[in-house]
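Page 42, continued from yesterday. The earlier attempt failed because a stray header line got pasted into the input along with the sequence. Redoing it now with the clean sequence only.
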Amino acid sequence: MSKETVQLTIPPDVDISDLELEFVDGTNLRFNWAPIHRICEASNFPFENFTEKQDDNVSALLHGWYELHINNGGEPDPVAEFILAEVKAMKRIGQKVQFFPGHA
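This time it went through. Structure tokens are written below.
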């Protein structure tokens, strides 16, 4: 199965902090979908590609957006930092990374 690369536009008034990342019950990630919806509108990209059992797409967006945010001098987010550390650790030991987003 091949992976398709898609370039998305992040509107200037949308910030990664708008996601309001948080853990619920210690393990489930919850975030606000509104910024992702805005990105899809600005990019003319179907929002359904993130919402209909497309965990890999959401994970890739959040990971790439957060890396861009940090590389551009943005403030670290403790939840995003924890997730990145966990993903790196799981990959290091050869475990498949699962991502189960929640709705805010």
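Notes: Residues 56 and 99 are 7 Å apart (CA to CA).
Reminder to self: strip header lines before submitting.
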